[in-house]
Amino acid sequence: MSIQVINRLNQPIDFYAIKVINKDKNQFLSKHIGNVRTNHYQIEYFDMSNSNEFWIVGYLPKNKMVYFTQHSVINKEADQKIEVKNYLNQSIKLSEKAEEVIEYLKLGNIGQSVIVTLTLLLLFLNIVLLTRKKVSSH
Questions:
Q1: pLDDT tens digit sequence for 75-105
Q2: How far apart are the C-alpha atoms of 124 and 70, rounded to whole Å?
């Protein structure tokens, strides 16, 4: 199923989509949709076979949540189109949970970035050491 998010607000909003797998067991799948400019849209794809609910969360550039909506999926074959026309928070309790899920996603991304950077550095150092000419001791 595709989710199309259209930003009708007067400033760019950074959107995230969260697929709710099981609220009671804190099982969520979150994706960063991207920074959507005014009067533009972004599409994200979800496999909704094991879920029937997703959330859309929007942040201003300074990490302030300005948009949260909860969506039930009745027909998993039909694509969803969400137009963001005003600042909205449908549920304070669920939006707080969504913030936790997004922070966990961001921390995971930072951890992966560190691992990739260190791996590339190690690879570079090994290539340099392998291509260096051996200095004779005579």
A1: 888 888 999 999 999 888 888 998 988 888 8
A2: 46
CA distances (Å), 25 to each of 3, 22, 28, 125, in order?
Answer: 24, 6, 9, 44
Mean pLDDT of 22-51: 87
Q: How many residues does the chain have?
A: 138
Q: Quick one: pLDDT at residue 116?
A: 93
Unique residue bearing structure tokens 């669920």: 94
The domains of the chain are located at 2-131
Class for domain 2-131, per CATH?
Answer: mainly beta
Name the amino acid, one letter, at 6.
I
Q: Name the strands in the sheet holding 2-7, side by side, starting at the edge strand that comes first in the sequence.
A: 40-45, 2-7, 80-84
Distance of CA 28 to the CA centre of its chain: 12
